[in-house]
Design brief:
Shape: elongated
Distance between the termini: 85 Å
Oligomer: single chain
Helix content: 40-55%
Largest sheet: 2 strands, antiparallel
Strand order of the largest sheet: 1-2
Number of strands: 2
Radius of gyration: 24 Å
């Protein structure tokens, strides 16, 4: 095997496998940059619906936050209730 064959063998990688490798890198990078899970907006919407059964509140009156502390995650829920 000569030097040229070595480099030609590496170039014969299919475009599908190259695309797959690049996509895996992009997905791993995006996951690392994500600070909040995808389910938080849906969770906030459902909580507003449940709380509205008992108290008249607006969508902006409920705030949901997720905080990581070491090996556990803390879900914080703040609800601004109207005065009576």
């Amino acid at each position: 095997m000569n030097l040229f064959d070595f480099f030609r063998g590496r170039q014969k990688q299919s475009s599908a496998s190259v695309a797959k490798e690049r996509l895996q890198i992009i997905v791993a990078h995006e996951r690392g940059q994500r600070s909040t899970p995808d389910y938080l907006p849906a969770l906030q919407k459902e909580l507003v619906e449940v709380i509205r059964k008992y108290v008249n509140i607006g969508s902006d009156d409920v705030h949901v936050a997720l905080e990581d502390q070491g090996n556990c995650s803390i879900l914080e829920l703040n609800v601004t209730l109207p005065e009576r």
